[in-house]
Amino acid sequence: MDLSWNLIADVREILSFHFMVNAIRAGTIVAVVAGAIGYLMVLRRQSFAGHTLAVIGFPGAAGATWLGLGAGLGYFGFCIAGALVIAALPASGGTGTAFGGYGEESAGIGTVQALALACGFLFVSLYKGFLSGLNGLLFGTITGVSDAQVLVLLLAGAGCLVALAALGRPLLFASIDPAVAAARGVPVRALGAGFLVLLGIAAAGTSQVTGSLLVFALLVTPAAIALRLTARPAAGLALSIGVALAVTWIGEGIAFFSPYPIGFWVTTLAFAAYLLATAYRTTTDRLGPRRRRPAHPGALAESPS
Amino acid sequence: MNPFTGVANMLALPFIHYALIAGTAIALLSGLVGYFVVLRGQVFAGDALSHVAYAGALAALAAGVDLRLGLFAATITVGMALGALGGRGTTDDVTIGTTFAWILGLGVFFLAIYTTRGATADSTANVNVLFGSIFGINPAAATTAAWIAIGLIAVLIAIARPLLFASLDPAVAAARGVPVRLLGPLFLGIVGATAAEATQIVGALLLFGLLAAPAAAAQHLTDRPWTALTLSAALAIAAMWAGIALAYAVPVLPPSFTIMAFAATEYALAALTTSRKPPRAHTNFETIPTPRTTTDQPVSAPRR
After folding, report:
1. What is the 3-state secondary structure (H, E, C) of B167-229?
2. Which of A28, A90, B23, B255 shows its CA 20 to 30 Å from the CA of A220?
């Protein structure tokens, strides 16, 4: 399988392998869900929670494999349980949790993450002969997606998107201005918990393509790019999904023809796109005579443009 | 079985000696450094440097040089750069996350180069970098690690007083002539070297816990800085020893897991027994960016 200049033939060659068809199906589902949920996640400043949930998925998958259950079950079970636990915590599930956090609380989250990874390592070493699968769990693989997994991903993703569509408007309101939303009778806390569960599902799905450690590439980066380029929520959501899809498809295509793993290609493409978006934004801000657009849709609440 | 003979048997084994020599020195270092990391609100730096440690180690493996060379070069450089750029939690979480996901992706890239080139013992080296291998450490590496740890501890103790001052109140410290701008990069350089050291023991993915958990537990237990600093180091060493002993007694359990489990247990016990909030006087309000970047963070404060 060599890359030729005839792109159609290349695509046809990729699609002649069943595992690649499955990988692309899974990647497409995951990219759409991660792009949509990730956009709201970045808006709500919960990317640290997303990272934590993805890391929690690793012991889930390793444990499920050790016990002979499917890895997908472990991912979803642990991620959803982790989301409920984070939602139950008084402060850390809040929107204020920055990546670094400040002092004590982030040290607690860091401890939980390290313990989750240690448990995953324990399960991996208890399950002898599974060490070769370790890289797949941590950094993603394109060969490991079965038909059943695609079906599970499809159901979970569809459920996720339906729930997101149902919650969408109040959730956006509660994300942009929780105080006003609460005053208007929007159940902010319940919405936050519901969103965390959706985030858990999205993190679990993304983990199966990019691996537990690289979920940021699909969950955060497309949303960050969208937020750099547009302040309108609908356009941003569409852009986020589009970038996630492009990164996944191109990444899977390159990973098929190259000896290097998908995790590397997806993170690199996403990071390059992020740099481009940042550079574009900086130059338009410097050169453009137009008024500086708000960096964040939330700023619209203060200065309607 | 008599536990005393069990311990005596364990202490007679050479590989346990090496594990204890390297483990104790590195736990002491991690406990001391971790206290300042938590105090200064730089936990994210520990997370970031663990990603860098992985990429650095794999780059060294791919290039065919000593793994530790890549580890130290990468982590110290990035640590000092973070410090020089003023990475005190002021940078956007999204930027940090994206960048470090990519650095981890680079690590995977180097892993692929390494495995495609030299096909021998590939997955064990990778697993060792990720999750550590304290029982596999050889005598030379153990003594080197211990000496480096002792040197770093000496530097840290030498700068401990001004560093504490600068961490608690940078404005006043700067006014009193403490070189705050110099201390930041120097300290993050030490954190980087600590990350490189700890990678050899508990691995790049878990060193974050070894830095954060004992320090956070110590901060729960006492308000006084020097007591907390000592306690943090003691808790880290206790977790290391207990972890090594348990991993020896139950061979199924990997030592990295038992060390992390004890450290996390310490933190959980400390957090549960002391229900009061940790003293906010220790947190540096100057570094919390919420009031300054209100346009970026419209939804941070009023939620509850």
Report:
1. HHCHHHHHHCCCCHHHHHHHHHHHHHHHHHHHHCCCCCCCHHHHHHHHHHHHHHHCCCHHHHH
2. A90
